[in-house]
């Protein structure tokens, strides 16, 4: 007979009768915990299960525990019948992570330029980007991203994470660092993968990369416009630049 144990909001199990009795004897399962077995309509206290022996003073577990018993190890499981909802990553966390990564990149660049000049920057930065690209791809592959663990465009397969990092590393790296803990948590709760939610990781990856390309193009146009305005202002305020441009023409 399979028995489920409910403690607070977590549903644990299923356990057999002997595992429940062993948990009661060691104190890992409390008589006040709720229990339900196959065919039962409502939850009941563990103490009311038929044939269950309740000790007046449970023996405390050994300190420290050497090897936890696999039959009575209480691992939180999703509630029976509960619908899975992908984790939503907040924009505030992404923005904070982006600012932190950008500041670190600027600080490292200043230190490298101070110590070794442009040569140090040209050597260290490409090495860092190549290593980070490999880490993101293999880490995302190990976590099996893109299975619906998170909602939105961050629900991307490993190849999309790697391609997004290759195109926009300063944006992708902080987003991945914020998204990774949520993916790890869902994977621990659903080792075989979360239920199908209708999210399409392939289209999410293409959409994210497309949006990134549009943002990069927009930033490039804005930068060109700003540089053009600055160049005109300098040529108007500096006669030498104006005369030089006339001679060139």
Distance between the termini: 92 Å
The class by helix and strand makeup works out as alpha+beta
Number of domains: 2
Count of separate DSSP helical elements: 6
Uncertain parts = 244-249
Give the helix proportion (percent range).
Answer: 55-70%
Largest sheet: 5 strands, antiparallel
Number of strands: 5
Strand content: 5-15%
Q: State Rg.
A: 29 Å
Helix-strand string = EEHEEEHHHHH
Shape: elongated
Strand numbers in spatial order across the main sheet? 4-3-1-2-5
Average pLDDT over all residues: 75
Written overview of the protein:
With 249 residues, the chain is α+β, with helices and mostly antiparallel strands. It has two domains: 3-77, no CATH class; 91-195, no CATH class. Helix content is 57%, strand content 8%. The protein contains six helices and five strands, in the order ββαβββααααα. It has a five-stranded antiparallel beta sheet. β3 (34-37) and β4 form a beta hairpin. The longest helix has 53 residues, at 91-143. The radius of gyration is 29 Å and the shape is elongated.
